[in-house]
Design brief:
CATH architecture of the largest domain: 2-Layer Sandwich
Strand content: 15-25%
Structural class: alpha+beta
Strand order of the largest sheet: 4-5-10-6-7
Number of helices: 15
Shape: globular
Distance between the termini: 66 Å
Helix content: 25-40%
Length: about 500
């Protein structure tokens, strides 16, 4: 037999894996660690980083600097200067924050709700979304329209130096920023505004959930007492190599009231001043038409006062009551060292294996039925609870789970005594091939624990939007979840 020669396809090539993990507790420690070892990779949620390792890695072990234990990292505060968010604030935190419901800030919540799935939003941070610098990253346009800025520190010269970077000045090329290697983002600040500021965020995608944007737009306007637009910021993403403000579209609105003519003029100006990219998600011509549609719809919603009309009454977070879904402060984990976690109530210790993910560690250490479906956070088969929050275990570095409590499908009930949710999946014939079911059941049980009352069908669909069924059994799955929650006393 003749041997097949040639290069491996990229999906067959071994990627990099997480190595040692440093866990500083202060900004100073983190900044100095970066200077001492510029090869360290910063990690918070890890959802983008582990994908980068898998797709673009060089079959090496990479040490990580875990910033999730830094004091103030998860704080989201309203201050006289505006909204101040620590660099570890997650998309789920923003979605759940009622402080961001007015003064145009709701646009950011809308963008955060479109990021991935509940499991990913529980881990992924806004700063991670910003510094990854993809033009498709949804929160960039919302924050840019809100005139957000980043605060950073750098200890390269021996002392902590700080700087402030306007978000619209952060990007210098495709997936490239002006940040230097030793620079650490510490906060996002959205300047304070009066009550006349209103905003909306709009997206065009190719599917209902977990869709990468074809076009996204953040639109924030300021009005005077006669409803005349006195200030406008419109940021467009997934159109060019970077997310960018569109001054022409904004200027078309200044001095006008939002009427059909001014809306059309702004949308026309946006189209005339963009040169869309052409890629696998959409042609340049399709994007050009979508820019007009997205800008028009966003402005029409603001004109009608309907910018919040499609916001769900309740947004399932897939976080159990009382849970604190953040990485606990803990020890450094040198490469090759054991990590320890409580899995389904049993203390487990072992060295990370495989790709260095929590999923691999669970399967090797605890022999759980948690499945690997896509290894990219797309399918939800690997969903587990980590410290009470549903997460995609394929995108959690195993070392970050050190000190955590993890619940898998086996931890929901004894094998011979299935709980109501598990039994209802059987009774309602929700189980087909069964491969996706562990992730569905863990997500569904987290939803039941979180809400405590019967969810609507749309709430179940939103909660399970991160879980895919290969057999297209969604109707029976949703029926099973609804029946299980309905049969349990509140």
């Amino acid at each position: 037999m003749t041997a097949v020669t040639g290069e491996l396809h990229w999906v067959q090539q071994p990627g990099s894996i997480p190595g040692g993990l440093l866990r500083p507790s202060t900004v100073d420690q983190a900044a100095r660690a970066l200077v001492a070892n510029p090869a360290l990779r910063l990690v918070a949620g890890g959802t983008d980083l582990l994908l980068e390792f898998a797709r673009n890695g060089e079959n090496t072990s990479v040490d990580l600097l875990d910033v999730t234990a830094i004091e103030g990292f998860h704080d989201l505060d309203v201050t006289p200067e505006g909204i101040v968010m620590g660099a570890g604030v997650t998309h789920a935190q923003v979605v759940a924050c009622e402080k961001l419901a007015d003064n145009g800030l709701h646009a950011l919540r809308q963008a955060c709700l479109e990021i991935g799935s509940p499991q990913l939003r529980n881990r992924a941070t806004l700063v991670g979304n910003l510094v990854t610098a993809s033009p498709a990253n949804d929160t960039i346009s919302a924050l840019m329209a809100l005139d957000a800025e980043l605060r950073t520190v750098d200890a390269a010269d021996g002392e902590l130096a700080t700087r402030t970077i306007k978000l619209h000045d952060l990007y210098d090329d495709f997936r490239s920023t002006v940040l230097v290697r030793t620079e650490l983002v510490t906060q996002i600040v959205i300047p304070a505004a009066n009550a006349t500021r209103r905003g909306v965020w709009v997206k065009a995608g190719l599917r209902k959930a977990q869709a990468i944007s074809v076009v996204h737009a953040g639109i924030v306007l300021t009005f005077d007492e006669h409803d005349v637009v006195t200030g406008a910021r419109i940021a467009l993403g997934s159109v060019g190599p970077t997310v960018a403000l569109n001054p022409a579209a904004a200027q078309a609105l200044i001095g006008t009231q939002l009427r059909s003519a001014s809306i059309a003029a702004a949308a026309d100006a946006a189209v005339a001043t963009t040169t869309p990219i052409d890629d696998g998600r959409a042609t340049a011509d399709y994007r050009q038409a979508s820019v007009h549609t997205v800008v028009s719809r966003g402005l029409a919603a603001l004109a009608a006062g309907a910018e919040k009309s499609r916001w769900p009454t309740r947004v399932p977070l897939l976080v159990a009551p009382g849970a604190v879904p953040v990485s606990p402060a803990g020890r450094d984990i040198p490469a090759g060292s054991e990590i320890s976690a409580t899995v389904n109530g049993v203390a487990r210790s072992a060295v990370p294996s495989g790709a260095g993910t929590l999923l691999d560690w669970l399967r090797e250490t605890a022999g759980t039925g948690t499945k690997e479906g896509c290894a990219e956070g797309e399918c939800g088969a690997c969903t587990v609870q980590m410290d009470g929050a549903a997460v995609m275990s394929c995108l959690v570095p195993a070392a970050q789970a050190d000190g955590s409590a993890v619940t898998t499908i086996e931890g929901l009930a004894p094998v011979d005594q299935p709980n109501t949710m598990q039994q209802m999946f059987v009774d309602r014939f929700a189980v087909q091939c069964g491969y996706c079911i562990p992730g569905f059941v863990v997500a569904a049980q987290t939803l039941a624990d979180e809400l405590g009352t019967l969810p609507t069908r749309s709430e179940i669909e939103l909660a399970l939007s991160g879980n895919l069924c290969r057999c297209t059994g969604y109707y029976n799955i949703i029926d099973a979840v609804q029946a299980a929650i309905e049969s349990e006393p509140s």
